[in-house]
């Protein structure tokens, strides 16, 4: 099925059609920046919501609900008449034919474009060990966060009924792999959950006896924030009871636990029921699909498209790749990189409509570093803006304020602020429900897909046999 440029709003005159892939920071900002611009916009994404990834760890640890950090994209853009939101997984971006092909269940949609902005983000990288994912989910999507909440809270429940001491210890050992901001935040929150929220709620176990281990192959915590803040964060985590293990590379992950290789080559085991992977990211596969279409365009080691200085794919002045999927030296995979990239490319599109854009003489994209921050626990965060580095309560207040500002929607901001007030001033957390679906759905889907694959193979073999018999 082909979708004509949508919709012909200005009588018979066909307006320029901009197709945006992704509803994350890059995609949503691009769509909003084209408000009141004389173009039709189709935003295609495989999820129905705009996800605020920096707060996923709070969904995983029972503080926020998924709705608070992932408003419906369709509702956010409801009043922007020139945008149509399409749910579907993009399978092809054809630069020569200028079409984007997406699929929703068995329905295929081919959407033509004049300009395309690909903001499909990144996914978890297991550095070639994809089988780790089954036992150590990452934290990139709402599904991931809810599954983790199920696994974390489920581990305490299993420990409560376990009568075997070794198994109880295994259930009460949480391992977070990767000491970047996500790993630090998650490890800190699991420790706080055990020590504050769950205290006194079990009869056989003492939740605060649990081990929370933060592992990294690197020699430091939060390397991009520099040694001073890294050491400060490590000390705060250790004060919370988190065991920080550095220079420790994970070489195997299985149901029972994981194997760690030390710097000297020796290996050791950690028996742990609940493992989380926050160690690496990899560009969305659409990046390679795009790069493979043009001679001389490559993806870097992390699968990000090496774009031109104006964020275009070489030779295609109106095909842009932005956000976590683009590689531009000095631009980190952070929300600001995606937001600023989206504003830059939509400005070029606006200029082209006014006849002011000369693709051969565009000013290159320039990233403005607004700094970075990470929170360790209640009342404790670190901030780095240029050469200014500090941590503690003021940093934590800044962290709260900034995250509120960037959350989409007044209602979400208000309810998140209220939830934080209650959570941080008491022991309670409002999102402690878990369901079997959270814990088992991914496994069940995996098994279903494998079964479907087997069935298809049997059917194919039978078909071949029948064809041979009739020949
Ligand atoms: C746990 C976590 C914590 C983070 N914390 C911070 C932080 O504190 N500060 C900070 O600045 N940054 C943080 N980041 C990074 C930040 O979230 C990203 O840099 C930012 O989201 C990148 O925006 P993007 O638009 O490129 O991609 P994303 O926001 O990832 O959006 C990608 C979009 O593409 C869609 N998509 C993907 N594939 C397809 C497909 N085939 N078809 C259709 N749609 C598709 C997805 O559904 C999604 O809508 C964090 C990231 C994570 C995962």
Automatic annotation (TrEMBL):
**Catalysed reactions listed for this entry:** a quinone + NADH + H(+) = a quinol + NAD(+); a menaquinone + NADH + H(+) = a menaquinol + NAD(+)
Q: Where in the cell is it found?
A: Cell inner membrane
This enzyme's EC code(s): 1.6.5.9
What positions does the domain FAD/NAD(P)-binding occupy? 17-341
Q: Which cofactor does it need?
A: FAD
Where are its TM segments located? 390-410
The lineage's top-level taxon is Bacteria
Keywords for this entry? Cell inner membrane, Cell membrane, FAD, Flavoprotein, Membrane, NAD, Oxidoreductase, Transmembrane, Transmembrane helix
Show the GO cellular component annotation of the record: plasma membrane
Q: Which GO terms describe its molecular function?
A: NADH dehydrogenase (quinone) (non-electrogenic) activity
Query: Family assignment?
Result: Belongs to the NADH dehydrogenase family.
User: Know the name of this protein?
Assistant: NADH:ubiquinone reductase (non-electrogenic)
């Amino acid at each position: 099925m082909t979708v004509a440029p949508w919709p012909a709003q200005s009588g018979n005159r066909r307006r320029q059609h901009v197709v945006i892939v992704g509803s994350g920071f890059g995609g949503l900002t691009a769509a909003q920046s084209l408000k009141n611009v004389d173009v039709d916009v189709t935003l295609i994404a495989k999820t129905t919501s705009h996800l605020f990834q920096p707060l996923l760890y709070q969904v995983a640890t029972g503080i926020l609900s998924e709705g608070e950090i992932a408003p419906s994209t369709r509702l956010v853009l409801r009043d922007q008449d020139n945008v149509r939101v399409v749910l579907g997984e993009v399978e092809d971006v054809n630069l020569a034919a200028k079409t984007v092909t997406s699929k929703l269940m068995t329905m295929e949609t081919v959407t033509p474009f004049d300009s395309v902005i690909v903001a499909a983000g990144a996914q978890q990288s297991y550095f070639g060990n994809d089988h780790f994912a089954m036992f150590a989910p990452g934290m990139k999507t709402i599904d991931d966060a809810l599954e983790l909440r199920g696994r974390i809270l489920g581990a305490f429940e299993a420990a409560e009924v376990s009568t075997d001491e070794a198994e109880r210890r295994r259930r009460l050992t949480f391992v977070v792999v990767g000491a970047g901001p996500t790993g630090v935040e998650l490890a800190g929150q699991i420790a706080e959950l055990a020590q504050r929220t769950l205290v006194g709620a079990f009869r056989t176990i003492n939740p605060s006896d649990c081990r929370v281990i933060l592992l990294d192959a690197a020699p430091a915590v939060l390397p991009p924030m520099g040694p001073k803040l890294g050491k400060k964060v490590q000390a705060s985590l250790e004060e919370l009871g988190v065991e920080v293990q550095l220079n420790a590379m994970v070489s195997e992950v299985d149901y029972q636990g994981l194997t760690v290789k030390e710097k000297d080559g020796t290996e050791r085991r950690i028996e742990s029921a609940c493992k989380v992977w926050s160690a690496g990211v990899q560009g969305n596969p659409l990046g390679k699909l795009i790069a493979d279409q043009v001679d001389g365009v490559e993806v870097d080691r992390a699968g990000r498209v090496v774009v031109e200085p104006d964020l275009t794919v070489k030779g295609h002045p109106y095909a842009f790749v932005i956000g976590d999927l683009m590689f531009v030296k000095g631009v980190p995979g952070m929300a600001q990189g995606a937001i600023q990239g989206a504003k830059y490319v939509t400005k070029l599109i606006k200029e082209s409509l006014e006849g002011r854009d000369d693709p051969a003489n565009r000013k290159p994209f320039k990233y403005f570093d607004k700094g970075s921050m990470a929170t360790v626990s209640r009342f404790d965060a670190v901030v780095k803006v240029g050469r200014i580095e500090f941590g503690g309560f003021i940093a934590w207040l800044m962290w709260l304020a900034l995250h509120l500002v960037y959350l989409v929607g007044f209602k979400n901001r208000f309810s998140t602020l209220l939830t934080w007030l209650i959570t941080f001033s008491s022991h309670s957390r409002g999102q402690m429900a878990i369901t079997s679906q959270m814990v088992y759905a991914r496994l069940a889907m995996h098994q279903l897909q494998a079964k479907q694959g087997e069935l298809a193979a049997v059917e194919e073999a039978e078909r071949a046999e029948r064809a041979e018999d009739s020949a």
